[in-house]
Amino acid sequence: MHHLHHIDEEDKEIIKKFLDVKHYDPDAFDPEILNDLEADKEYQSLLTFYGSDILGSENYIKLKSFIQHGNVTVFEHSIHVALCAIKLNRKMGIGGREREIIRGALLHDYFLYDWHDGEAPGNIHPKLHGFYHPGIALKNATRDFTLSEREKEIIKKHMWPLTVKPPRCREAWVVCMADKYASTLETLKIRKGKIRVNYA
Ligand SMILES: [Fe+2]
Ligand SMILES: [Fe+2]
Question: Where are the domains of the chain?
Answer without folding.
Answer: 29-189
